């Protein structure tokens, strides 16, 4: 397993969990590496989905998340760093994501995206890029909605 694949991460509720960080994993051996990490105590599999537009890197999509769902019963925490979440939300929901995080700066109505994710029985989260001002009124409203509903 590559170095830095495991990390201790704090979730929005202040709980710490050992997380498999998929973007640093060996993509040819994801199932093996996730098993090693979860056997060592990892509780979450953090999946960074990048489309090459919203961020410059390209990683994996819903078919890989679906395969990971078959490989583990741990929480699949899917972080969508993609330009058009509306185009792919259904795919990631059907693939077995336990948590889906969308970016405020992505295309579409973030609040509606969060509602759609929750309506499907999946936990939803919203994040902002480091340079986006947190005090932005609409961003704060979306983030507050997430904080009030994912307890």
Question: Could you explain the architecture of this structure?
Answer:
The termini are far apart. The mean pLDDT is 80. The protein is built from five helices and six strands; from the N terminus they run ββαβαβαβαβα. It has 151 residues and is an alpha/beta fold. Strands 1-2-3-4-5-6 form a six-stranded mixed sheet.
Q: Quickly give the structural class.
A: alpha/beta
Helix content range = 25-40%
| Gyration radius over CA | 15 Å
Q: H/E element string? A: EEHEHEHEHEH
The number of helical runs is: 5
- How many strands, which pairing sense, and closed or not: the largest β-sheet? 6 strands, mixed
Mean pLDDT: 80
Q: Which strands sit side by side, in order, in the main sheet?
A: 1-2-3-4-5-6
N-to-C terminal Cα separation, in Å? 33 Å
Percent strand equals 15-25%
Number of strands: 6
Low-confidence parts, pLDDT < 50 over ≥5 residues? none
Shape: globular
Q: What is the compact description of this entry?
A:
It contains five helices and six strands, in the order E-E-H-E-H-E-H-E-H-E-H.
């Amino acid at each position: 397993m590559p170095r830095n694949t495991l990390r201790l991460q704090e979730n929005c509720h202040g709980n710490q969990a050992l997380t498999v960080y998929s973007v640093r994993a060996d993509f040819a051996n994801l199932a093996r590496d996730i098993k090693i990490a979860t056997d060592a105590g990892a509780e979450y599999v953090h999946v960074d989905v990048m489309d090459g537009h919203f961020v410059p890197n390209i990683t994996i999509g819903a078919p890989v998340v679906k395969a990971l769902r078959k490989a583990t019963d741990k929480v699949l925490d899917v972080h969508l760093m993609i330009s058009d979440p509306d185009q792919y939300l259904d795919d990631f929901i059907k693939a077995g994501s336990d948590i889906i995080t969308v970016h405020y700066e992505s295309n579409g109505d973030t609040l509606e995206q969060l509602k759609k994710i929750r309506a499907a029985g999946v936990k939803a989260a919203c994040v902002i890029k480091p340079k986006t001002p947190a005090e932005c009124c609409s961003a704060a409203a979306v983030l507050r909605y997430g904080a009030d509903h994912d307890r």
